[in-house]
Protein 1
Amino acid sequence: MKVVLAYSGGLDTSVILKWLIEKYHAEVIAFTADVGQEEELSGLEEKARATGASSVYIEDLRAEFASDYVFPMLRAGAVYESGYLLGTAIARPLIARRMVEIAHKEGATAIAHGATGKGNDQVRFEISAYALDPDIRVIAPWREWDLKSRTDLIAYAREHGIDVPVTAEKPYSTDRNLLHISYEGGVLEDPWAMPPPEMFRLTKDPREAPDEPAEVTVEFNSGDAVAVNGRRMNPLGIMRELNRLAGMHGVGRIDMVENRYVGIKCRGVYESPAGTVLHRAREAVEQITMDREVLHLRDSLVPRYAEMVYDGYWFSPERRMLQAAMDEAAREVTGTARLRLYKGSCSVTGRRSDEALYDPYLATFEEEDVYDQRDASGFIRLNALRLRMAARRAARKVREG
């Protein structure tokens, strides 16, 4: 039996690799997608082979991740609940797609992942995999084995001589890519507990950020960022540059309790510097270029789109349909936003566009001869007609006792 394992080199997947060999007598192919983990990839192949992997795939998917997954989601303005920018969720369909492709190439009949039975990632990986190969077998060890906690996994790793970067004293887990780093579990399971200051890796503590603000401009073409500070870059380059600039100024920290798809509330702490800047900048350009009714309709659909991404339905027909609508809405979102980064804040200070619907001549409080203010009287009376009729009915009922 051959199994393709989504392998990160962390505690869970290191234990899973060994467990698959022992439990299923499987030949395990370890697959790591480089979606922006940076130094976390160092020594990964050697570690996987030392733990028993028969072969190892480590593939640089950063450019594809940025252009084909993150940027379409950004065009849609997707934010889940009170601020999650979907960094982990959007990486899962890409990883699942490549796992299925490797399984087909290697003649593997199953894929495996390290998501727990309580989390969202099990749903994301498996729904994506089944959408691409309805007959693929999925092995989810957290739903099968007798290990009940990460403390048990640490003991298993020590017993089998597996080197893992997690200790019982520091058990929270992380997930990193171009769009964010997430932190959950351990000390963070108490929603009142303050995140340890030393935990953050992408963003400087706002109290220690530079005392002088930084001005940054982001240029957009049809809803996609194409340049930062006048320098044109591809999506990968833009995300790396904004992660650097915004992270230096402490921008992009998010601490929230979210509703998982399986019904559990979970506290997550995130760092998303580039994502924060790109969302604010895109909104600024939308404000002057997007038609009012298109903007309002698009905004009404954002929560549904975000749920599709969060819940794992990236390859679903409804997400594809809605993506087409989001892309059409973003077609005229072309222009430049200027933002100020300062001690954790990211504020818009200007926006401009050759496609602007904003007309300063119409918007002015000074005298102009295009907008006849007397026209507003009929407009207001027509829009108030149903309310006036309701008020008359209520008054009639009072009179009639």
Protein 2
Amino acid sequence: MTLVYYCTIQEAIDAASPTDIITVAAGLYPENVIINKSLTLNGPNANTACGSRNDEAIVAPASGVPFTVTADGVTINGFEVTAPSSTYGINFGNTSNVHIVYNNIHDVGTTVTNANVHAVIYTVANGGATSNVSISDNCFNHIASALLTGNSTSAIGILQSPSTGVLTGLTIERNTINDVEVNTGNWPTGKLAYGIIINVGSSSYLTTTGKVVNAIIRNNEITNLSGFISTGIALEGNTENAVVENNSVANLYGRKLANRAGGGYDLQALKFETNRYVATCTVQNNSFQTNTFTHNVTVGLGYGVANYVPVGDAYSGGTTGPATLSCNWVGTAVYADIIDNANLDGKIFNKDLCATEFLPYLADGTDNAPSTTGFQPPANACTGCPGGVLVTNTDTDVTYCSIQAGIDDATTGDRLAISSGDYSEDVDATVKTHPRARQQPWLRHYHRRYDPQ
């Protein structure tokens, strides 16, 4: 293998053949790098997490975008990226097999005043079909600022609301996101600060082909967002079969006044909006620390999950359904403080005609692995049910807040352990048979009082 040396990253890219690996030494590179062929770019901190890094290869142009990717099969690994006057740090879209990993991305758009800012942006093109995009193990700090008025910002944006394209296999995991900010004045001076936003096909969400399929948003830590509206993770376009799990969201700030039709306080860890696939999404084992949110001057006011998608709207192939959550911490273990209410100050919010199922929930917000990025709940902490009742499938270790829910989800032959408490339900224990199993799940009862209504 012949080693060839260049003075700039762009010279190395221009001279490279597809599938080459370019290794970049530590130093300052004031370049607008355009990657137009399948290449791997490794900085000196390739595969090295923030907090353990050595001297950086710093891509910091005087103006414009540090990295623009226009080809399939590109990896950007182990760089420092900064661009205070640019709207983007890394810009790519309509590409497949692209991986943005182990980069230190900071101070993007911090002097921008009049344009949307996204530290990493991927655009889904009209009519396109792309796949296998990952944005993982990066750290994001200081994205946009209070100078930004009339526009919104995010650390990671998967975008194009009018797009008719489809992106399959998006992975966003183990990123740390801190300090994403816009002006907090009244709308439209102050707008939205996002940690992660997916907004594809939202313009006509019931009829468009635009969507993101099989997205995984996992083990991210999002903190210190500030805007008129702040959202940690936004699934604001069509996200079919998305998985949101083991994320931590804390320290959000917002100022929007609440009303049911307008979306409550609009200060939330996770938001569903213009997303016909809300019922296909899995949301589990997240820490949505609403006790750290601040609305204007009120601490602890905001939502773990806000749902803006009405139930029962028809689209080709089905109708919209409720959002379903499982085993999430939302800042409190008290059921009465979690449930949506007329004062709009519960930890779950449903806009008019929307519904969210959130039982059972985590009754303990301890992170069992604090040195690991994201949130790992303690074992056996998913015990949050009204009245303290709990049904556990002892074969799968999945918990439920009603006997019927446990039965409906069981495989023939499973055993259900039922805690003491009042179960005001009519139970139908009929389940499908299996040639090697018993006819019904076994019900192991613990001093329960059973009171069918």
